[in-house]
Amino acid sequence: MRNAYYVFTRDIKKFYRSRGASFLYFTFLIITSLWLYKIDNFLIRGRADFTSYFTLFPYILTIIIPALTMGSIAGEKNRGTYELLLAQGVSVLSLTVGKYAAVLVQIASMILLTVPVPVSLSSLGDFDGGRIVANYIGVLLFSSTLAGLGLYISALSRKQIQAFILSVLFILILVLPWTVVSVSAGGGIFAEILKNSSPWYHLASFSRGLLDSRDLIYFVATALFFIFLTIRKINLERWS
Predict the structure, then answer these.
(1) Of 11, 50, 102, 162, which has the maximum CB count within 10 A?
(2) Which letter does DSSP use for residue 38 in this model?
(3) 26, 82, 215: which is closest to 137 by C-alpha?
């Protein structure tokens, strides 16, 4: 997987040398901090509970992850380097894995920058450390699915802005089943299928401090599914 590592390091260096990295990280940290300290009034509400803090994460990531993935493959097409990479002997598998890993590292780094927030406030109350760790694991797994989807949409697109809009749209579509089931009183098999198809549903148990193997399998399986679709799409383009 030497070529995958080459693609990974190439994308990581390009990302952290750009102003976009600082802007996205700064935006994420500012919004989450403002929510905790100003809107949620954490310091004055008298409860040692980070539930609402982590509840905000997936909604912000719905915008930030498409911004990170939109240029992964669509950007290569625009710059004319997409075909050049493949012509240099980089396999489709290496290209996809390298780019996916780069996006995951970018997301994980951004999320882990928020760790000092709950740590710095731990002295103010009796915090459940296990629950906070579970929330971070859940958010990272949730991000892995969205990153896979974003990468696949980028492979489908010719323009970065097109990839961004479509990724946000499809992520919102994934929200709908969970929203519909949540606001309705209906049940049955169809409701269960809808519920289990949404990453938001599988994120819920982590927010309660639970690590359910079914949720772990869901996030890993969906991420691998989108990686498979990306590889298949690139192969079809390559041989068409």
Answers:
(1) 102
(2) I
(3) 215
Only one residue has tokens 């949720």, namely: 215
Instruction: For the chain, 240 residues long, give each residue's pLDDT as a single digit of tens.
Output: 778 898 899 999 988 888 878 888 888 888 887 777 665 555 555 555 677 778 888 889 999 999 999 988 988 888 877 777 777 778 889 999 999 999 999 999 999 998 887 777 766 666 777 888 999 999 999 999 999 999 999 999 989 999 999 999 988 887 765 555 554 545 567 667 777 788 888 888 898 888 889 999 999 999 999 999 999 998 887 776
Tokens standing for 34?
Answer: 């403002």
* Three-class SS of 124-177: HCCCCHHHHHHHHHHHHHHHHHHHHHHHHHHHHCCCHHHHHHHHHHHHHHHHHH
CA distance 176 to 178: 5
Q: Which residue matches tokens 């699915």?
A: 145
Helices and strands (H, E) in the chain, number of each type: 12, 0
Question: Can you tell me the distance from the alpha carbon of 112 to that of 120, in angstroms, rounded to the nearest whole number?
Answer: 14
Say how far apart CA 185 and CA 194 lie, in whole Å: 14
Distance CA 9, CA 101 (A): 10
pTM of the predicted model, to two decimals?
Answer: 0.87
Domains of the chain: total: 1
Write the single-letter amino acid at 53. Y
Across 185-214, b (16+ Cβ under 10 Å) vs e yields eeeeeeeeebbebbbbbbbbbbbebeeeee
